[in-house]
Records
---
Amino acid sequence: MLRTLAKIRKARSGMAAVEFALILPVMLALVFGSIEVTNLLICKTDVTNTASTAADLIAQETQISNTDMNNVFSALSALVFPFPSSNTQVIITSIIDDGHGGGKVAWSDGYHAIPHTVGAPMTVPTGLITTGGSVILSEVTYPYTATSSYLVHIPFTMQNSFYTHPRRVPQIQRVP
């Protein structure tokens, strides 16, 4: 019996397979976790780029029509590729000086989102709106869902907003 136990103790033929079986789940979790974190960071960057691009596209104009706004929203939905754009919510708002150091909504449009009410007061950083001037505010919200739901089950909602001044006129007009 002692000889049999000694043979078992010296046998090493299946040890690599056992070690591999123990380490494989941890390694797979690390690999797929790294992929998910990378996708999450890429999506966050896309949301930030979408917010800044939305404000920049509008700020280049002197007036915006419904066709122009639809074209901007179509272009913005392409910026979140390869992630689904159907969940992207974008609100673009022109905020004008209210005469008391604050701002109010001149016009607002939403893509898969409810725009701000015209005339409603808006809080903006101090000194951002000059007397008689305006700013364009873009707000982007994106609910990110992990591609491998085996590891991460929690959806992340990413939000970003961006202010910019109109480039060619003090206030951009919204026309039908």
---
Amino acid sequence: MTEYLSPFAADLIGFAGSFFIVAAFAYSNLTAQMNALWFNVANFLGAALLTISLTVNFNLPTMVLEIVWMAIAVFGIIKALMTHRVDAGAAE
């Protein structure tokens, strides 16, 4: 991917990913009632952006961490969507 993305651009993408993960973490600690879907989407997006960055500035342990982070976030997104459907069905 280095032929498509400069190291500087990869760093900017990585910083954006870090922002999403830190924002989700801060949100989870500051909110009275957390929106699980938003939290997991922000974590997935952050991990995905960091993974893109890591294709240029490769670090295997961090790449593995981001892949696991995305997998956990996908699980959380599915769970949040299923919970939302159950709640919407109960409201009818």
---
Amino acid sequence: MKITPLDIRKMLFKVRVRGYDRQEVDQFLEELAQTVEMLNRDQTALREKLAAAEQQLAELKKAEATLMNTLVTTQALTDNLKHAAQRDAELIMKEAELKAGELLREAQAELVGTQRDLSDLRKQKLMAIERLRATLRNFERLLEIEEGDEHLRTPGDRPEKIADGSNR
């Protein structure tokens, strides 16, 4: 049974001949009622504070759960971004390797072509030198023939050299 301050104030005791001092008992009951009333107010205030603290705790737990979910989501997003960046980097590297291989093959093909052209030019040079030698031999033979013909001619048949005048 819960006793309220009003119950204390309305409490009546039986009067006996050698009982307690009535005034003293009434005063004690009044002080007791005031104390219980004050304790009830304090208890109500504490319950209100407790309810507010529990509500704040519930809100904080909800905020914490939201933050944790956000953190987990952010971590997953970060991991996905890292993996995507790594895949992109690997793709770029593979593309670069393929491009480098293609450029290398093109350069090697160009080198082979240039070497073939150089070889053709060397052959042409050798052929030109051989033709020049053949032409020089032909001129040399013609000169020898011409000199041989000059010996067979008579001294009067020789044409005179006008420019230097050495045959006079």
